[in-house]
Amino acid sequence: MKEKAAEILAISGSILFVSNALLNEAFAADASKTAAKGAAKAILKTPIKAPGTDPIDAYIKLVSPKIQQAWKAPEKTTAQKVIVSLSIEQSGKIKSVTIKEPSGDQAFDDATVASLSALGQLPPMPTSAKDGMTLNYTFNAGNRNQSTKTDNDSYIYAFSRKVNAAWHNPKVDKNCKVSIAITIDQSGKLVKAEVAKSSGIKIVDDAGLHAAKLAEPYPAIPASLGDKMTVTFTFEAGPTKDVVNKMKFNGVPLPQGDYQISSGGAQLRPLEVDTSVNRKLQEREAQLQERLFNLKKALNQQVSKYGAQSIQAAKAHHELANCAVELHDYKEAEENYKNALVIVEADASQVAELHSLLHDYGQMYVIIAKLKDAEALMSRALEIGKTANGIDAKKQRNVMEDYARLLYKLNRTAEADGIYKQLREPH
């Protein structure tokens, strides 16, 4: 019998709650790329169909959840993953289940083969698959492997924190919930975000989608969790709902805050501290994250319109860097300050922008205790303010005050005292 082959996206049977509908879409997407030549020829004889109507794709969407649900393996194992080939006849009968790539744990492999073989019969295939097909599935051991458990726990916690920080509670009159399915690839790049269960209020649904996009980039997926995954978050909005309350893990909603994960699922601990001060801090961070997201969009627009070396792009880099400092993301800030400085230094007409940029850049280095780097930038700003035209007097005064404070930190007391003396003199 001539068989058709389709590579199916990784399934995590014990780590993450992934909706069947979303998995099916992923399975169909991969399967459509590698369907056998016989099926391809049969399809080409018919008129081109709209995306999603291919009978092979539809069949894979139908059987993949059944195969996923049938998979059973030991609760504890040394395995990370196993790749299995299912040979299926046109009638839907499972002809054979074989290990394509062993996990290294014989008991894990044997249990996988036995549980899938027990399925026996699947729904009949479409007529275009008259020779049957072979589907290759990757099953991940996930939290069953205790050697990877710590990495998985840390990953889910970091993932959750990213989305929590990005959520901003929209102002609505009643309490409601929206569930957002977030799909990412192995590198942490957002593949898609879509509403899994609507709140019934567009502004709330949009806020959930926006949080998913704002949280990108996500942490890279550990090898034990596969190459791609979907996590469903439930956001709660309304007068009494200030933060993200729930995330599904193994199908169980997680509250915001600390939790523990066992090999069989999630053991929850409620958030211990939830004061009004914490909520205000979280709201402020969410607002800054949203502002950072918008500033990155604005930077891309300026680069597209005026060019990467334009003054417009430099000013966008500067504003983005200042926002990153407020979020304590000093790596992001430093990169944008550097980009802005190269552009502004090359344009002699941008003295005021250079003065401001050097001051802000220097202040960031003060915050992270790189005092010598800060002094080099701040002293330049100070000299520009003394000699150049068009520098705002208030801004120059701020530079002098901040530079004097920096000099005290560097134990250059006499110089600092001299600057303060100048500041006290009448103008």
What's the layout of helices and strands?
Elements: E1 5-7, E2 11-12, H1 20-34, H2 37-44, H3 55-70, E3 81-88, E4 94-101, H4 106-117, E5 133-140, H5 146-166, E6 176-185, E7 190-197, H6 202-214, E8 228-237, E9 246-249, E10 252-255, E11 259-262, E12 265-268, H7 276-306, H8 311-326, H9 330-345, H10 351-367, H11 371-387, H12 393-409, H13 413-424
Parallel strand pairs: 1-5, 2-5
Antiparallel strand pairs: 3-4, 3-5, 6-7, 6-8, 8-9, 9-10, 11-12
Helix pairs in contact: 1-3, 5-6, 7-8, 8-9, 8-10, 9-10, 10-11, 10-12, 11-12, 12-13
Task: Describe the protein in words.
It is a single chain. The chain has 427 residues and is an alpha+beta fold. It has 3 domains: 5-142, Fusion Protein Consisting Of Minor Coat Protein, Glycine Rich Linker, Tola, And A His Tag, Chain: A, Domain 2 (2-Layer Sandwich), CATH 3.30.1150; 146-274, Fusion Protein Consisting Of Minor Coat Protein, Glycine Rich Linker, Tola, And A His Tag, Chain: A, Domain 2, CATH 3.30.1150; 278-424, Tetratricopeptide repeat domain (Serine Threonine Protein Phosphatase 5, Tetratricopeptide repeat, Alpha Horseshoe). The chain has 13 helices and 12 strands. Helix 8 (311-326) packs antiparallel against helix 9 and helix 11 packs antiparallel against helix 12. The longest helix has 31 residues, at 276-306. The model is unreliable at 1-52 and 242-275 (pLDDT under 50).
